């Protein structure tokens, strides 16, 4: 039984279509990558939906129930879909929603068939990781690519050497697409692990990199203002606490004047700490202080 239910796009044939994908849960710290996906897909038409009953464990990811004045009024189920938007003369197919619990391999196979049928020419994954970086620095972006020559010269590909971590569903889908000859890249924002909740600067950084890679303009809307306001709140929180101020200063000292690629051991250590401090796959992480 198929997981993917596609509909023919309502407009003209697709132009240089690219799939842009992000799942919430694993590798979506602060919800930055799914926020970027939602931003890109705004106003798009749904061209594919999925059999969520066969993809999700509803006891782990329960549907949301609204109760108004003692009456059950609305039930919202986890939703995974692909929306089509036309940006900069080409089509972007935005795959986003909760990370599936089941049938990753079948889903990958069906997405390959879907992508080949529509003539998809590239795949872009987005994610965000809790890392030992300071909020006072530009958001570093860690990049991956299926072959050389796909990234801009100033984009950091890495880390070097072997990095062995628990895989995300998103990575298994990207791998399936790669094995069928479609070029793939990934952009992963490194976010301050002490920030709790949404992080607008991370979302904006992902949009900037994805837009440049795809050669399309992805307006940031109110993200720039939101990032500036959050920076002011974080600065105030740090200034009010000696321990936090010293911690951020140490992160700035480590970073120096140049952004750097974290080592595999550093990333693995952050992921291990992330899992230990926040059981489950919720995005974000607590630290020496919380985002006010």
Question: What does this molecule look like?
Answer:
With 292 residues, the chain is an alpha/beta fold. It has a single domain, classed as 3-Layer(aba) Sandwich (Rossmann fold). Helix content is 33%, strand content 24%.
What descriptors fit this protein?
single chain; 292 residues; alpha/beta; Rossmann fold; 7 helices; 11 strands; 33% helix; 24% strand; globular; disordered C terminus
Largest sheet geometry: 9 strands, mixed
CATH topology: Rossmann fold
Low-confidence stretches: 274-292
**Radius of gyration from the alpha-carbon trace, in angstroms:** 19 Å
User: With helices defined by DSSP (H or I, 4 residues minimum), what is the helix count?
Assistant: 7
Compressed to H and E, one letter per element, the order equals EEHEEEEEHEEEHEHHHH
Strand content: 15-25%
The CATH homologous superfamily name equals PAC-like subunit
Overall pLDDT confidence:
87
Taking strands numbered 1, 2, ... along the chain, how are they ordered across the largest sheet? 1-3-6-7-2-8-11-9-10
């Amino acid at each position: 039984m198929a997981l993917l239910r596609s509909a023919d796009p309502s407009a003209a044939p697709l132009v240089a279509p690219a799939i842009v994908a992000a799942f919430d849960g694993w590798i979506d710290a602060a919800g930055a990558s799914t926020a970027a996906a939602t931003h890109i897909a705004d106003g798009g038409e749904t061209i594919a939906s999925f059999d969520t009953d066969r993809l999700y464990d509803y006891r782990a990811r329960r549907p949301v129930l609204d109760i108004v004045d003692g009456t059950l009024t609305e039930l919202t189920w986890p939703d995974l879909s692909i929306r089509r938007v036309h940006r900069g003369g080409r089509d972007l197919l935005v795959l986003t929603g909760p990370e599936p619990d089941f049938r990753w391999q079948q889903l990958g196979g069906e997405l390959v068939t879907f992508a080949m049928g529509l003539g998809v020419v590239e795949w872009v994954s987005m994610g965000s990781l809790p890392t030992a970086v300071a909020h006072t620095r530009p958001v570093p972006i860690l990049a991956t690519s299926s072959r050389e020559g796909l990234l801009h010269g100033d984009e950091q590909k890495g880390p070097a050497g072997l990095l062995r971590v628990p895989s995300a569903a998103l990575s298994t889908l990207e791998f399936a697409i790669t094995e069928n000859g479609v070029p793939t890249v990934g952009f992963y924002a490194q976010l301050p692990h002490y920030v709790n909740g949404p992080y607008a600067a991370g979302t904006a950084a992902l949009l900037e990199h994805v837009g440049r890679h795809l050669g399309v303009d992805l307006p940031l809307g109110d993200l720039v203002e939101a990032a500036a306001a959050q920076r002011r709140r974080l600065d105030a929180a740090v200034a009010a606490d000696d321990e936090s101020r010293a911690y951020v200063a140490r992160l700035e000292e480590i970073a120096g004047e140049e952004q750097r690629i974290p080592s595999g051991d550093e990333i693995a250590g952050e992921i291990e700490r992330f899992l230990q401090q926040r059981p489950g796959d919720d995005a974000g992480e607590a630290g020496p202080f919380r985002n006010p």
